[in-house]
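Because showing beats explaining, we think one record worth quoting, sequence and C-alpha cells together, and here it is:
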Amino acid sequence: MTTTSAGELPTPVTVLGLGNMGSAIAQVFLDRGHPTTVWNRSSAKTGPLAEAGAVAAPTAAAAVEASPLIVLCVLDYEAVEDVLAEVGSAISGRVLVNVTSGSPSRARAVQRWADERGAQYLDGGVMGDPPDLGSEHVMFPFSGSRAAFDAHEQTLRELGTPTYYGADAGLASVEFMAQVAVAYELLIGFLHTLRLVQKEGVDPAEFAARMAGSLAAYPPLLTAIGAAVRDGAYPPDLGPLSVQSALMGDLVEHRISHGVDTVRMREVKELMEQRVADGHGDEGFSSLFELLGKRR
C-alpha cells in the first residue's frame, strides 16, 4: 500500500477502460488499498470489480470527478479520443495517466488536450502482461508532467517499475514502441530460424534452449552498438565487415535450399557488401547504420 504522504490514506484512483489490462490495473489498486473508481463503455465489465470493492461510475466524467489520479487504458487512440470527448472539462485539476499504446505524435496531441483543460498529463505504456501487474518485472515508461510523476510515482509503482523519460509526452511512446519493435524483429527472425533448423532435422525446442543460453552475450554487444551509432565511430564488433560478409552468401543459400525466408539475411548481405565496397571493410556490423534509409 502506498500513501500520498505520512499519515494520509492511499491515493484514490480512477481507471477508465476495463479490458484485460485495465481490469488488471484496477484490481492491483484495489488489492493495495486504493479507493478505486472504474468506468467502462460496456458497464457489464464493471461488475467483478464492483464486487471486489470498486465504485462503478455511471459516466466517464463522473468517474474522473471521483479521483485526483486518472488512469486511462483502452484499445487504441481512437478509443482514447472517444473517452476524452466524454470526460471533457471534468479532467481539470487532475492528473491523467494514459497507458494506451500509440505513436509519439498522438501522445503529444493528448498532452495538448490536457494542457488546454488545466490537467497534468503523463503518457506511458505497459511492458508486460496483465497477470504480472503489481510486480517489479512489468516496466512502465512515462513522460510528460514531471510534477505529476513526482507526486504519483509511488502509486504508479504499485503496478510495476515506472521510469520517467522527460517532459515531452511522446518520449515514453518512443521507448515503448522501440522496445516492442526490437522484440518483434528478434522473434520473427527466430521463428524463421526454427523453421530452418527443423528442416535440417534438428529439434527446434533443443535449439531454442541452446540459443537462450547464447543470448547472455548480447547485452554488452547491444550497448557497444548503441554507443558506436551515437558517436559515429564503428569498431570491428563481431569482426571486420570484410570477414563477416564472406559468410553471408552461405547463410542466404542455406535458407534458399530449404525454402526459408531470406529477406533479412539478403538485406544484411547487401548492406555489408556496399559498406565494404565503400571502403569500410575494417569496421564492424554497427557501421551498417550509415546506410539505413539511403537508396542502395
Q: What stands out?
A: The chain has two domains: 13-168, 203-291. Residues 25 and 159 are 7 Å apart (CA to CA). The beta strands are 13-16, 36-39, 55-56, 69-72, 95-98, 120-124, 139-144, 161-164.
